Amino acid sequence: MSKIRTDGFLQELNSEYKATRACLERIPESLFEFKPHPKSMQLGYLALLVAEIPLWIKHMIVDSEIDFATFKHESPKTTDEVVNFFERNMEAARNALQGTNDEALSSTNFSLKANGNVLYTAPKIVDISTTLNHWVHHRGQLTVYMRLNDIAVPSIYGPSADEQTFAPPK
Asked: Key word Metal-binding present in the record (predicted)?
């Protein structure tokens, strides 16, 4: 059974890990309520979202659905709690990806629901890729919030204005 795409997802998840954790570690709980604009989400919620998205991958693979009405969100109160939540979700995503293959992800669908009503359905192999992109998007958004609050932005794909040396992720 082929694992070319599945292993690629795992590699991408792992390659984004270090920079994502570095961002989350730097968000002080004293700024969790910060919003750059009235229509923007709060910094604490955005950090929670970035920490949570790997868990979505686990649910896509194992449960084949996420229902907004029943999906349990954590309520971390501290930076350490956000980082610990992220670590648990990374482990869950890694385990789910290691336990599947391309054929399983191509032949089964993931559905996003609200109160049992299907909002969206797609092959898992498509939606995992979309979710990884969504995760990176929100991490980028998080770095803008960081910059607005004079929080040092870590090196992500190369040096940042705050970290001029670049060490590739391990």
From this structure: yes
Sheet containing strand 65-67, edge to edge, reads 65-67, 109-114, 117-123
| CATH fold label, 4-148 | Four Helix Bundle (Hemerythrin (Met), subunit A) (1.20.120)
Write down the domain spans for the chain: 4-148
- pLDDT tens column, 7-17: 999 999 999 99
Are the beta carbons of 49 and 86 closer than 8 angstroms?
no
Q: Are 31 and 82 in contact (CB under 8 A)?
A: no
Verdict on whether the full-model pTM lies above 0.85:
yes
Would you state the torsion angle of the CA atoms of residues 146, 152, 157, 159, taken in this order, to the nearest 10 degrees? 140
